[in-house]
Fold:
Amino acid sequence: MFDLIIRNANLPDGRQGFDIGLAGGRIAAIEKSIAATAGEEVDASGRLVSPPFCDPHFHMDATLSLGMPRMNVSGTLLEGIGLWGELRPLLTKEALVERALRYCDLAVSQGLLYIRSHVDTSDPRLVTAEALLEVKEKVAPYIELQLVAFPQDGYYRAPDGVTSLERALDMGVDIVGGIPHFERTMEDGARSVESLCRVAADRGLPVDMHCDETDDPLSRHIETLAAQTVRFGLQGRVAGSHLTSMHSMDNYYVSKLIPLMAEAEINVIPNPLINIMLQGRHDTYPKRRGMTRVRELMAAGLNVSFGHDCVMDPWYSMGSGDMLEVAHMAIHVAQMAGVEDKHKIFDAITVNSAKTMGLEGYGLEVGCKADLIVLQAADVIEALRLKANRLFVIKSGKIISRTAPRISELFLGGRPASIDIGRDYVPSARGR
Ligand SMILES: [Zn+2]
Structure:
């Protein structure tokens, strides 16, 4: 009756010791004890089982290109954009596909099965879009990949910005992107937001813009984005990525802005690893953190989800496709270390991201897709603390990745001992 049963699972909502039966690509049962057997069984033995991670903001055309054609010496966003501009004419479709597929393998091993990637449309050759559309099809059996037409060099500022973006959408790219803070003037930026929302409304597509990725407190394109969202009736279908300028904005102004964003049902996508690395670079001390106001936005009811943004590319030399690393950084930068806080942070790389991406059938309820991960941790909080191993990754009811648990053997003066860090150091009691 079941294709696969996961035994003795702890669930993200705190339920402990449940069996999960998968059948026909869906979750068919979640019960204290399933009497039936299945062709395949996984013993979670009191570890956390979660829906897979979702990354709502990534750059798969740039990933794993670190050092090509040279390293980012200053480590800044602007040198990264310049460096990408040097690399872009050298890109071939074959090399783009190869790097993206390698990243997708890494993502699967990390339990990351849903990714929204921006695709740079600045080069009118559009090899980036061609390559990632091919990748999207190739990985479809195991990763749901969404693509955003992203005018990296500016919608108006790049010579072919407007037409290249339209052509990428014609080719089948799913989402309308933008980068208003990189246009020549604030006015051009605001104009680009309006035009791009119109394109999205006309084509019936969602919007996801890099918006106000700067420390400038007067970069206020998010205000325009919220207003145009309401004007074009796009509520709930628009994402504002980064929004780092909100970190530096005047508090009174923000007290008006956040309700406006809530009215427009903007999906907020901070990218904690990249924001803490790239923002505040012009500051001496004190140095701003440059991540948007996560706690305040969540408190106002906005849907906040975290993106990885970059892995080993011109902007970021680190990263490993690990959304728990992203969340771990978010806890620190947002100073959200309370028990409830951590659950909200975990939501931001799972259910909230799924909402941002408009995923169908995502979750851990009967009827949801049979896509699950088993972590080497007892619960959500331990998973975040340990950036826990992904022991099993299950897609459509089948195991597609398995990692051995991390267990250390100690040799201490003849006293044999071993440590399973996901089991032996769990606090005995934890209230919510
Ligand atoms: Zn980005």
The first helix runs from residue 77 to 87. The pocket of zinc ion is lined by residues 57, 59, 118, 210, 309 (CB under 6 Å).
